[in-house]
Amino acid sequence: MFPPLTYLIVLACLVQAGWAAWFVMKDRAVMLRQLWGCAVVEGLLLVQAIVTAGLLLLGSYGHVEVWELWGYLVTALLVLPLAAAWAFAERTRWSSVVMLVAALTVAFLEWRLVQIWSA
């Protein structure tokens, strides 16, 4: 994996989580700009998956459990779109809670990916 990209994804997720937390405190629903922010994070996740696939094909990894790594990558790719769909359908404060939990989940999954890759 490419660590600067991973740290950028974690930073972007934490910014999204902070934004969603602010909306939770203000009792507001998710707005379209937040969904665009999630789309940017999703694009970064896709780039990370492509880079990771390339590194795995080149054999430049140590003792990585490939199935575990891909499980975390695919899960990270699915969390934000599912949360965005839920937030789009749920036009209450709870949509912001869903986005907050999803952003923190992806940040945690990225942390685990770093641990798996460097094991």
From TrEMBL:
The keyword Transmembrane applies. This is Integral membrane protein. The chain crosses the membrane at residues 6-24, 36-57, 69-89, 96-114. Keywords: Membrane, Transmembrane, Transmembrane helix.
